[in-house]
# Entry
Amino acid sequence: MGKLGIYLLANYPSKEVFLEAVQACQDLGVDFLEVGFPFSDPVADGDALEKAGQVVLKRGDGMDDFVESFKRARAIFQRDLYIMTYSNLVYSMGIATFAKRVGPCNGLILADLPLREIASFEKGLKSADVPIIRFLTPESREEDITSALKGAKGFVYFVSKRGTTGGGFDLDEETREKIAHVRGRGVDVCIGFGIQSKRDFDLACSAADGAIIGTKAVAELEKGIEAFKVFLKALKE
# Structure
């Protein structure tokens, strides 16, 4: 079985339930967590995650709330923990200031950051030793792959399809070949976007080192913490 990554949106559907979900992920053996910091213009989020983010923002939660919850999540979850958000949120605060404010994490996932701009961001993160997680897609060229793997740590996030999160999941032969070309070059490859079920997770892990579930995980958590736990247990069977 490959590595299971779960995406949770900070303080959604509430701060208390978010932290209960973090504890469930710790207890049920999730390999790594991505904690999303809501942003007003989430260009890579599908409708469900965008609406969830708007709920949190309209409630009045801001950066202080997200940082506090992230730090509490870090105290609960003992495996790899990443922050996923958008580059403008980090840049507007100051890259080094952002890293200092959130404290230790295993990496920063910026959904809208082009490969060519990673180096400038990582300069600001150097003192905090926080890497930027690289994205690749089925359309990535050889020079993109070489660029992404240079200095990569943690894992490479392989986006399974064009567009936004959510929707269905499948892997064609061309995508499998591209993933195989990236694997075994010094860093894990984990697939994200569209993975919703045990079947999808197993399919993704047949080609990659692991898979990330976001939209479906958030949807299950909306039903309550017990439904979320049942979902996680089914994935780990």
